[in-house]
Design goal:
Chain lengths: 138, 110
């Protein structure tokens, strides 16, 4: 993710535990509200953040005694919001016993203007990168 | 961090139960709502009133699908009332109305 020096950025890391999705979507929503982003755009972002973080909580550290971190990065530019949700887990693998509905990524895909899912550069884990074009640029 | 942000109220009417849900429905709180919907008499209409729900993600959809499966196997009828905000949008994204009755006013569901 590239960030110009003037772009406001929110960067948070929390344990990938129950409650992480709520905490991070609230922080992202507050950050964007402070930046003047209007509610319809904030709704898209907080829903997508919740889905991406929930995926990390449910899947990234499965089978480990202790949950690892989930990283959130939100960058606000005049016309775009860029969001990255990353983990340090074992990557995306098929899971027949999933506790979720398998709808997280489809829901995200319906909300974003651009979506990328990949391994993290030079590290273990997965990164979901989402771009939202603001419908009412600030 | 506490996830105790969900409130569930049950109102029993003749042949109908209204389940009013407020707060935020996500992976952390969905079990509370799942547990709140206890045994249901066959033939009963159960209306989930989500109009005052502030947030829902696909964990809520997963729960609604679970309740739909229960309703079909146990012989009761599930319906969902939503407003026009983020919750309605989530239901539209996954086209829940193809499977469950979705309305704006609980009184549409008898």
């Amino acid at each position: 993710m590239t960030a110009s020096a003037a772009s406001p950025v929110l960067q948070l890391t929390v344990p990938a535990e129950s409650g992480a999705a709520r905490r991070l979507r609230i922080e992202a929503d507050r950050f964007l509200g402070d930046g003047g982003v209007t509610e319809p755009d904030r709704d898209r972002v907080r829903l997508a953040v919740s889905e991406a973080v929930t995926n990390v909580v449910l899947h990234a550290y499965r089978g480990r005694a202790r949950a690892g971190p989930v990283h959130l990065l939100v960058e606000l530019s005049p016309t775009l919001v860029r969001v990255s949700v990353g983990d340090e887990g074992g990557g995306m693998t098929p899971r027949p016993d999933s506790p979720g509905a398998g709808l997280g990524l489809p829901v995200i895909a319906s909300l974003v203007d651009d979506l990328g899912v990949s391994g993290r550069d030079g590290a273990s884990g997965t990164e979901v990168r989402m771009t939202f074009a603001l419908t009412r640029p600030g | 961090m506490s996830d105790d942000t969900l409130q569930v109220g049950l109102r029993h009417e003749p042949d109908r139960v209204i389940v009013a849900v407020t707060g935020e429905l996500d992976e952390g709180t969905a079990p509370e709502l799942r547990d709140a919907v206890g045994p249901v008499t066959p033939g009963t209409r159960v209306v989930l009133d989500l109009r005052r729900l502030a947030f829902m993600d696909s964990a809520g959809i997963h729960l609604l699908m679970h309740l739909d499966v229960r309703a079909r196997s146990e012989g009761w009828r599930l319906g969902v009332a939503v407003g026009t905000g983020i919750v309605g949008r989530v239901l539209q994204i996954v086209r829940l109305a193809d499977r469950v009755e979705v309305v704006e006013d609980p009184d549409e569901l008898r």
